[in-house]
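ARCHIVE CARD
CATEGORY: sequence design from structure
SOURCE FIELD: tokenized fold
FIELD CONTENT:
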């Protein structure tokens, strides 16, 4: 079997196309082979704040980069401007890599961008990425399903379009799926309301909860808490933080394997102290 030339892609790469590419949650080792290949062949990379610095270091020096999101999230480029930018860049005949944190089609607005590209007859492809739920949980020693603890897993966002609160919807969904692990993206800002709604729907106060900040990165931080206390422990955490709720979180201490670069131990107790 012949070996591919270094840097060559093992699949056809179009000259002019918008590639909606998942960058994974932060660890550049979680980029797919296809994502890395396209990053190396891009004319321009359009990226936002969830794409880690380590992933951006993979972009070759001569490639144009366009940043479309500021750190605090409130001042991101509006979605319609991003959509228009992608169309404009594609019409110049360039190979555009639209790099998005995690997976582009999981709470990444990749669907909206793809719709806009279709409406404007722009050729596009989607490259799935490793989504925050699977990666942050795995790097925190949490199997999202387990035959002894959880028969399924549900991904929810903490707020909807135009910031509509979703805690009631999450809680009602939980009531019908008590055997499933619940993962809440973008839930940090409304964690108190989310946990209150869940407790009101019958969730036990001692149900284990993991809060995972900057998962998979060198700043990976995992706080293990409970449904009753999660909102208190969340106070010192910042975005991006993922909330994992369910019995599988009990395995986190036993299966703790990930030591972020520069940290002695990856486990933080509820008070934010490192413990071996
Ligand atoms: N498309 C992304 C999700 C975008 S929504 C994906 O598939 O992962 C943004 C939310 O994802 C954040 O508010 C946070 O809840 C979660 N998230 C993304 N990356 C994360 C990370 N490295 N650590 C913790 N949470 C993360």
């Amino acid at each position: 079997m012949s070996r591919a030339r270094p840097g060559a892609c093992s699949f056809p790469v179009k000259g002019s196309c918008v590639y909606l590419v998942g960058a994974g949650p932060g660890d550049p080792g979680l980029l797919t082979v296809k994502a890395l290949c396209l990053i190396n062949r891009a004319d321009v990379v359009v990226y936002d704040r969830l794409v880690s610095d380590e992933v951006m270091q993979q972009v070759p020096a001569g490639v144009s980069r366009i940043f479309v999101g500021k750190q605090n999230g409130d001042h991101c480029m509006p979605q319609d401007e991003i959509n228009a930018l992608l169309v404009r860049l594609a019409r110049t005949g360039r190979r555009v890599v639209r790099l998005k944190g995690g997976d582009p089609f999981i709470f990444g607005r990749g669907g909206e961008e793809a719709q806009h590209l279709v409406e404007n007859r722009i050729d596009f492809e989607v490259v799935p990425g490793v989504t925050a739920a699977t990666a942050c949980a795995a790097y925190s020693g949490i199997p999202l399903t387990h035959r002894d603890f959880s028969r399924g897993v549900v991904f929810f966002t903490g707020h909807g379009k135009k910031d509509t609160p979703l805690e009631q919807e999450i809680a009602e969904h939980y009531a019908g799926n008590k055997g499933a692990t619940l993962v809440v993206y973008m839930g940090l800002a409304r964690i108190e309301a989310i946990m209150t709604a869940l407790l009101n729907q019958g969730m036990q106060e001692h149900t284990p909860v993991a809060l995972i900040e900057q998962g998979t990165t060198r700043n990976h931080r995992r706080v293990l808490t409970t449904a009753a206390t999660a909102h208190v422990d969340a106070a010192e955490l910042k975005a991006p933080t993922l909330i994992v709720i369910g019995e599988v979180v009990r395995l986190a201490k036993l299966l703790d394997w990930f030591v972020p670069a520069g940290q002695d131990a990856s486990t933080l107790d509820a008070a934010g102290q490192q413990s071996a």
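CARD ANNOTATION: The radius of gyration is 20 Å. The pocket of S-adenosyl-L-homocysteine is lined by residues 25-26, 50, 100-103, 106-108, 131-132, 136, 185-186, 212, 214-216, 239-242 (CB under 6 Å).
SHELF: design records, drawer C
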